[in-house]
Amino acid sequence: MNNPYIVLPVIFQLLTSVLLMFFWYRVNAQRLITIICSIISVGIATWLFKEVYQNGILTMQAGEWQAPFGITFVADLFSTTMVLLTAISGMAVGIFSTGSIRNARLKFGYFPILNFLLMGLHGAFLTGDIFNLYVWFEIIIIASFVLITIGGEKAQIEGAIKYVTMNLLASAIFLTAIAILYGLAGSLNMADLSIQVAEIENRGLVNVVAILFLVGFGIKSAIFPLYFWLPASYHTPPPAISAVFGGLLTKVGVYALLRIFTLIFIPDEFLGNLLIVLACMTILSGGLGAILQVNMRKIFSYLIVCHIGFMLAGLGIYTELAIMGAIFYLIHDIIVKTNLFLASGLIFKLKGTLNIEKLGGLYKKYPKFSLLIAIPLFSLAGIPPLSGFWAKVFLIEGGYKENEWMLIGFIILGSFLTLWVIAKLWSEVFWKDAVDLPKKINVKYFHELKPFKRWAMVIPIILLAGTSLYIGLAAEHIIVLSKQIAAELINPTAYLDAVLGIKSQTP
Amino acid sequence: MKTLIFKTASTYLLPLLVLFSVFILLRGHYLPGGGFVGGLIASIAFVIHSFANGLEQTKNLIKFHPGFLMPVGLCIALISGAAPLFIEQSFMTGLWFENPIPVIGMVGSALFFDAGVYLVVIGVTLTIIFTISETL
């Protein structure tokens, strides 16, 4: 069905950034606008989700240029779920930033750029054109380059060099892949490509293109041999920025992988096995890396890598059940990872360090905060009935039905490693006796902040913790949702019909 | 570069180049030209002026910070892109006035979009160049 308003989430983010740019030096006005606009954007995303959930897939042809030729925007259930999750994490990060980011950074345009980043994310989820997807990826990485370097501390610049280099490389590979695909199929519309690619006789070349896409998105989503840039850069910027990076930027790579490999390239045996091996290695390397680290944000960065493996595993098994597990994991992971990075920001403000060997006694001194932070931590470890548990159940069940014993072993190992890391972190940071830390002059501690800023840092964490509790305790809703998404992904006829109309019915 | 020839030339080049940039802007859509090139030409006009007369002179000439043109241009582009939404058409659909306006020709939402791009390009280029020449 045609609905011109599905592009509203993107337009609204752009409007917000333009509005914020008019208040370039007036940071308090920017704070107010950010809070109001981020709440409205969650409202818009909810409206879109409801609309798609009730009426099925909605499309929009930009400039009324019809489907295979113009740029199509498609809002199916998967896209709108991602848009909703992005809006929720975006709101949390926006509100958190009003409390935690220094005025000096805000005067360099932190909030407008953050909203440009969110606009790019919304666009990437909603577009139905593969070249347009590339453009949204560019908007995302350019905005993220600014965010990662804003403030210009030495560590930040060092992290940024690795981040920028790898991401530019990934973009180049992605663009090459699009070029070859266009040469092969003569189309850029993803629904049209789905039909065209299936008819190409030269399967070898199609597989090569598929691998190029895998490498391009693999760098962005940090899968096994290509993940080194992530733990080297994500701990350098301020916590609010790492939260949006850790929660959303790698997931947009996973989204693209799920989209491309269910719609355009259906994995054959070789590709399926490759994905499974990569998933196993990603889980192993991320998990082992996390054990070694002492910086809390580095631990979380390695855990991101580890858990990307779970989602890749679902794609590798390629049954409805496994993909459903991957989708459930994706939904859970966005909220939890964003929340953990925000929580690490809160801990830094409380104690002035993130080294888990130096931290301690948090439970004794701040019991309420500890309980709050326990929710995302234990959700991440997958302790039942919290949100991470359900996703893994479906992934393991999906692997079991396809006799993927090695993969099941690695998923269990990965969960065990995560549990170990989280248990270590909990005992070190929260239960161990506190040591007196030297007071740092350049850190503004939590108790020195104004009440507004304190609440601005705590409320988003409560909000996201509530969301992950909802995902865990009301799992039946999320299961129904992810089952429907998985069914749509495995059998894309509804998607093709919505985009191309009558054309797909005449084979 | 404070030579008399360059300085004199720059005073005449500035209005000529700005006029030419507007011509290029209006020429766009069906012929080569448009907002991006037009904006570049307009900013070249100011850059030449600043080379000949010094940065302060050019800043006095423009009166406001060129960075301000960025949100203004984005705003115009956004509104012209989103205008079709108000009559339930898709984002970025071209809406045209029925009768051509003398000198300018056919006017539609594409022209306003280009005008937005024009302003953004001037704003970005001048901000970059002014910032670099300030730190030199």
UniProtKB/TrEMBL annotation, chain A:
<feature type="transmembrane region" description="Helical">
    <location>
        <begin position="242"/>
        <end position="266"/>
    </location>
</feature>
<dbReference type="InterPro" id="IPR003918">
    <property type="entry name" value="NADH_UbQ_OxRdtase"/>
</dbReference>
<dbReference type="InterPro" id="IPR001750">
    <property type="entry name" value="ND/Mrp_TM"/>
</dbReference>
<feature type="transmembrane region" description="Helical">
    <location>
        <begin position="164"/>
        <end position="185"/>
    </location>
</feature>
<keyword id="KW-0812">Transmembrane</keyword>
<feature type="transmembrane region" description="Helical">
    <location>
        <begin position="69"/>
        <end position="96"/>
    </location>
</feature>
<feature type="transmembrane region" description="Helical">
    <location>
        <begin position="272"/>
        <end position="292"/>
    </location>
</feature>
<feature type="transmembrane region" description="Helical">
    <location>
        <begin position="299"/>
        <end position="318"/>
    </location>
</feature>
<dbReference type="InterPro" id="IPR050586">
    <property type="entry name" value="CPA3_Na-H_Antiporter_D"/>
</dbReference>
<feature type="transmembrane region" description="Helical">
    <location>
        <begin position="205"/>
        <end position="230"/>
    </location>
</feature>
<keyword id="KW-1133">Transmembrane helix</keyword>
<keyword id="KW-1003">Cell membrane</keyword>
<feature type="transmembrane region" description="Helical">
    <location>
        <begin position="6"/>
        <end position="25"/>
    </location>
</feature>
<feature type="transmembrane region" description="Helical">
    <location>
        <begin position="455"/>
        <end position="475"/>
    </location>
</feature>
<feature type="transmembrane region" description="Helical">
    <location>
        <begin position="32"/>
        <end position="49"/>
    </location>
</feature>
<feature type="transmembrane region" description="Helical">
    <location>
        <begin position="369"/>
        <end position="393"/>
    </location>
</feature>
<keyword id="KW-0472">Membrane</keyword>
<feature type="domain" description="NADH:quinone oxidoreductase/Mrp antiporter transmembrane">
    <location>
        <begin position="129"/>
        <end position="418"/>
    </location>
</feature>
<feature type="transmembrane region" description="Helical">
    <location>
        <begin position="324"/>
        <end position="348"/>
    </location>
</feature>
<comment type="similarity">
    <text>Belongs to the CPA3 antiporters (TC 2.A.63) subunit D family.</text>
</comment>
<protein>
    <submittedName>
        <fullName>Proton-conducting transporter membrane subunit</fullName>
    </submittedName>
</protein>
<feature type="transmembrane region" description="Helical">
    <location>
        <begin position="108"/>
        <end position="127"/>
    </location>
</feature>
TrEMBL record, chain B:
<dbReference type="InterPro" id="IPR007182">
    <property type="entry name" value="MnhB"/>
</dbReference>
<feature type="domain" description="Na+/H+ antiporter MnhB subunit-related protein">
    <location>
        <begin position="5"/>
        <end position="127"/>
    </location>
</feature>
<keyword id="KW-1003">Cell membrane</keyword>
<keyword id="KW-0812">Transmembrane</keyword>
<dbReference type="InterPro" id="IPR050622">
    <property type="entry name" value="CPA3_antiporter_subunitB"/>
</dbReference>
<protein>
    <submittedName>
        <fullName>Na+/H+ antiporter subunit B</fullName>
    </submittedName>
</protein>
<feature type="transmembrane region" description="Helical">
    <location>
        <begin position="12"/>
        <end position="30"/>
    </location>
</feature>
<feature type="transmembrane region" description="Helical">
    <location>
        <begin position="36"/>
        <end position="55"/>
    </location>
</feature>
<keyword id="KW-1133">Transmembrane helix</keyword>
<dbReference type="Pfam" id="PF04039">
    <property type="entry name" value="MnhB"/>
</dbReference>
<keyword id="KW-0472">Membrane</keyword>
<feature type="transmembrane region" description="Helical">
    <location>
        <begin position="107"/>
        <end position="132"/>
    </location>
</feature>
<comment type="similarity">
    <text>Belongs to the CPA3 antiporters (TC 2.A.63) subunit B family.</text>
</comment>
<feature type="transmembrane region" description="Helical">
    <location>
        <begin position="67"/>
        <end position="87"/>
    </location>
</feature>
